[in-house]
Design a protein that fits this description.
The complex is a heterodimer of chains A (about 350) and B (about 450). Chain A is built from 12 helices and 9 strands. Chain A is α+β, with helices and mostly antiparallel strands and about 350 residues long. Chain A folds into 3 domains: about 1-35; about 55-145, Immunoglobulin-like (Sandwich), CATH 2.60.40.420; about 165-345, Cytochrome c-like domain (Cytochrome Bc1 Complex, Chain D, domain 2, Orthogonal Bundle). In chain A, a hairpin with a 7-residue loop joins strand 1 and strand 2. The chains are: A alpha+beta (about 350), B mainly alpha (about 450).
């Protein structure tokens, strides 16, 4: 400094002085303005500028808090943007019933959003449809769609399910085992059953009654066909055909997707009861699965039950078994589609029906 | 003195380093990223792979630090580190200009017992036992960064200069030690000039520069360990006697003056931590990772106890035995403790290269997350640069293991050469030095094999 002339020193101080001011401004920008701007934009400005109301939902595994928030209120007719972000493990996000809204996989750190308008008041469920933890099935949230004219009023209930009502009225215990008295030795085939039914001409009376496929168990139908003169194997083939006859390729495909996303984790992709969740039962005693998942490909346990019993189990859940309730997720038609699909695990499809 | 190339012969570099704007400007830039990391930690997505705090602190910054800055530029990170900034600016009542008078503080005296790096050793271990949690949870990272800055500010209120950097910062401790290997140094050009210069402007400051905030007298500087490269001495020296030099790697490791037990332990702790991190984070033992990740408190406590025992007892114990054997076969008359300290410096290249090899595992594999995080630093669905959707792409997955092996072999050779040259400082003949080096080299070879086992599976 002593070597520096006074003139140069003055210039030096001037430059330093200006730099100091700039540095102070930069410091304030970084420490004060930056946080306020970032948080203000994200939490105040961005929602205010959005063309629709945006609801941020954190989708975490149930043991990490599940959906946050897990209850959303929306006015009927209002379009909302649901923005899902995932903090922990991949989840599958879907909204039902009957909306056909499946956002697919959302990976940790990924953000997926969807604009939804609910035209009528009612209740909907957003849920995870990808196995994410031992408590996967608990990962659900509700959307309550209210009437904007009466925002305080709760949405009207869908009312009791007529199938469940009917079963209760008849005193049917849907949780009881439904063993098949005389199960088939091999796999009954719908392709062979076509010819058997054609040759038979007229079907027994029980198989012509309305709704027979839903109220009658395959085992009962088999008994009727054997009584009508068919051999045991022919009767099972005929049953396979009759139970799968209404499955077309499109319904099979839709049901197969629903099954893969919602059922296979426990019941296995092959319907053998050996899904990933079932395999980890020993490691996860806390998962509230008190019974091993049912094997749909086992004719001894499957063919003694009727379609309506499986429908009821799906919609209501299995009491004390760990089977969750899918009523808030599937429409009745989707539920029937799944029930029909279950028969394809014990019967061989006619190749012409396949998807 | 070996080969040196004076970088400050370059006029523009010298002007840059002499400018008072240079360091604060860089600190403000890093402070910007620091604030973004803290915001992302507190308010951004908890998914580490999409959070700026995790990706830019533990992958980008870490890679820059350990692979580039420390080996080549020594303590250059300390030049631009934002953590001591606010505290120092409070002391100086300014950011750039030299404010008249001494920097303000309560001027407490730093306890004599803590004038070493033991606090940094234990601070590093304290952070290390939580590392699996810190490295994966943005909120914890944010608390750590904020906590370090607040600690820096607090200490600068009570103590003069950069007490936090010199004695407390857990990162500064190992940067200082590993800077012994780096290819850059700040030194005086002619020691005699400093001896004859009575005003010692570099220590007390001048009208336009502060006295060394790292409490170092540049005239005595023979090792990089405690020079924070703040370049105040370069600005202060009226004799133009301070230079920034390029030099051979590892030069300071052979400087006997200043070797101490705290630094020796730092070398051992860093080596042990590199091994343990490689085992916990990359090894096949999922249960260890669960324990480290605080699956349950008792499991974590057991992990922490094991971690500390390996760092403080097992590895130092094994090295003590190695040193005792080396002393006997090399017929060295020094006490084992003295030799233990000296030989520990031969572990520095191995430790640094072990950390670089460990870092390759995740820098190459997960580095691509940085591209999408730049566009969406908080994981809120922003797309600032249009790169949010760039998918995760591991870089050179087939080459990483080969690079690690090559590096480790370089580390083994480098460390063995240093061990031999340290041995030669205490033996009368080359043969004695070779004999004494053998057990140390065997220890180093064992470490190399463990690293390789972990990286190659």
């Amino acid at each position: 400094m002593r070597l520096m002339s006074e003139k140069r020193l003055d210039r030096f101080r001037l430059v330093e002085g200006r730099g100091e001011l700039l540095a102070m401004v930069a410091l304030i920008l970084v420490v004060v303005v930056l946080p306020i701007s970032v948080l203000g934009y994200q939490f105040v400005l961005r929602p205010a500028l959005a063309d629709v109301r945006t609801i941020d939902v954190m989708a975490a595994a149930p043991e990490a808090g599940g959906f946050q928030p897990d209850a959303i209120r929306v006015a009927a007719g209002e379009t909302v943007r649901l923005r899902f972000s995932v903090p922990d493990v991949p989840h599958g996000i879907a909204i039902g019933p009957g909306l056909d809204l499946d956002l697919g996989h959302v990976d940790p750190g990924q953000v997926k959003e969807v604009d939804v308008t609910f035209p009528e008041p009612g209740r909907y469920t957003f849920y995870c449809n990808s196995w994410c933890s031992p408590n996967h099935w608990r990962m659900r949230g509700t959307i309550e769609v209210y009437d904007p004219q009466t925002p305080e009023a709760l949405p009207a209930s869908d009312g009791p399910d007529p199938v469940l009502e009917s079963l209760t009225a008849r005193g049917v215990d849907i949780d009881a085992p439904h063993e098949t008295p005389m199960p088939p030795h091999g796999r009954p085939s719908a392709a062979r059953g076509v010819d058997v039914v054609k040759q038979m001409g007229e079907l027994p009376a029980v198989l012509t009654a309305p709704e027979w496929r839903r109220t009658l168990s395959p085992a009962k139908a088999w008994e009727a066909l054997v009584t009508a003169g068919l051999s045991q194997a022919e009767a099972w083939d005929a049953v396979a055909y009759l139970w799968l006859a209404e499955m077309d390729a499109e319904r099979l495909k839709r049901a197969s997707t629903l099954y893969a996303k919602n059922c296979a984790a426990c019941h296995g992709e092959a319907g053998d009861g050996q899904g990933v969740a079932a395999r980890s039962l020993d490691q996860h005693a806390d998962m509230n699965m008190l019974e091993e998942p049912v094997a749909f490909n086992n004719p001894s346990t499957m063919l003694g039950g009727s379609g309506e019993i499986y429908y009821a189990k799906l919609r209501r859940g299995g009491m004390g078994t760990g089977m969750p309730s899918f009523g808030p997720i599937f429409t009745p038609d989707e539920t029937w589609m799944l029930v029909d699909y279950l028969w394809a695990f014990v019967f061989d499809l006619d190749p012409n029906q396949g998807p | 003195m070996g080969y040196r190339f004076e970088l400050t012969r370059s006029k523009w570099l010298k002007a840059l380093l002499k400018s008072r704007v240079f360091q604060p400007a860089l600190m403000l830039v890093t402070l910007f990223f620091f604030v973004v990391a803290i915001l992302a930690g507190f308010f951004g997505t908890p998914a580490g792979s999409h959070n700026f705090g995790i990706i830019f602190v533990w992958i980008v910054w870490w890679a820059l630090l350990i692979i580039v800055l420390v080996p080549f530029f020594g303590r250059m990170w300390c030049t631009i580190c934002p953590i001591p900034g606010p505290g120092e600016w409070l002391q100086r009542r300014g950011i750039i200009q030299r404010t008249p008078g001494r920097p303000r503080s309560l001027r407490w005296r730093w306890p004599r017992r803590l004038r070493n790096i033991w606090l940094q050793n234990f601070g590093f271990l304290a952070v290390a036992i939580f590392s699996t949690v810190i490295l994966t949870r943005p909120g914890v990272t944010a608390w750590l960064l904020l906590g370090m800055m607040l600690l820096g500010v607090t200490l600068s209120i009570f103590y003069e200069n950069r007490v936090f950097c010199r004695y407390v910062c857990p990162v500064g401790g190992f940067i200082g030690l590993y800077s012994l290997t780096s290819s850059t140094e700040l030194r005086v050009k002619d020691v005699q000039v400093c001896r004859e210069h009575t005003t010692k402007d570099c220590v007390i400051g001048t009208e336009h520069s502060y006295g060394c905030p790292w409490m170092v007298f540049p005239g005595n500087l023979e090792r990089n360990t405690y020079c924070g490269l703040c370049t105040e001495c370069l600005k202060a020296c009226p004799k133009d006697n301070v230079a920034l030099n390029l030099r051979p790697f590892g030069t300071d490791l052979l400087v006997a003056k200043g070797r101490s037990l705290d630094e020796a332990y730092k070398a051992l702790i860093m080596l042990a931590c590199a091994l343990l991190y490689s085992g916990v984070l990359l090894g096949p033992w999922g249960w260890v990772k669960d324990w480290a990740n605080m699956a349950t408190l008792p499991q974590w406590a057991a992990y922490a106890a094991g971690f500390l025992a390996i760092n403080l007892l097992v590895v130092p114990g094994l090295f003590w035995l190695t040193t005792a054997v080396a002393r006997r076969v090399g017929q060295i008359q020094l006490p084992v403790k003295r030799l233990f300290i000296d030989y520990a410096y031969s572990l520095v290249p191995m430790g640094l290269i072990g950390w670089i090899a460990f870092s390759f595992s995740f820098v190459f594999v997960n580095g691509s997350y940085a591209v999408s995080v730049l566009s969406d630093p908080f994981g809120w669905g922003w797309d600032l640069l249009g790169t949010r959707s760039v998918p995760w792409t591991p870089l050179l997955p087939g080459l990483v293991a080969a690079l690690q092996v090559a590096l480790l072999l370089v580390g083994l050779v480098f460390s063995s050469i240093i061990a031999y040259r340290i041995a030669r400082q205490h033996t009368r003949t080359d043969v004695q030095a070779w004999h004494s080096t053998l057990p140390v080299s065997a220890f180093l070879a064992g470490v190399t094999l463990v690293f390789m086992r972990l990286y190659l599976g």
